[in-house]
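step=predict obj=Heat shock protein Hsp20 n=187
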Amino acid sequence: MSRWDDYNKRRRRGFFDVFDEIFRQMEEEMNRLLREFETMEPREFIEEAGPTRRFGPYVYGFRITIGPDGKPMIEEFGNVKKVEGKRMISEEREPLVDVFEQDDSITVIAELPGVEKDKIKLEVSDDRRKLIISASDTNRKYYKEVELPAEVDPGSAKATYKNGVLEVTLKKIKRSEKKKGYEVKIE
């Protein structure tokens, strides 16, 4: 092997090492989650829920994305949570949510399948940095408090709901105004 080939091989290996590290971290987190699920037993849910709890369905999911800092992020959703080491089951599911920030606005997209548009309630918190999504239908209940990357103007909110997907667009505000909660109507 020539000196040039050796140099190119080391250079290529250095570039791909970044990706190898990201995938190694993702693999470690996936293995941790799988080990945790292997130890779960359905009777643990029943014992923790208590005798008056309505059982099922149990919804748990996660997605893996690469954050702005280049590190993998794992986001969990559903109605099975781990709080202080104990598994808790809630009647309300936590929907899968994406937040997109543009120069002058923030868009929040949430998956809320199985509920009617008029059963969804949206509220902007008093500090204008959180969007609260709640929905309650005969079969499904959803609840999520979405942290927003900037302060927003609740009066500018526009929301649409189609095929189980809720899209909310809010304009960012530059200056502080009188802070109060605000309910958002869905078109």
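step=describe
The chain has two domains: 1-91, 95-187.
step=end
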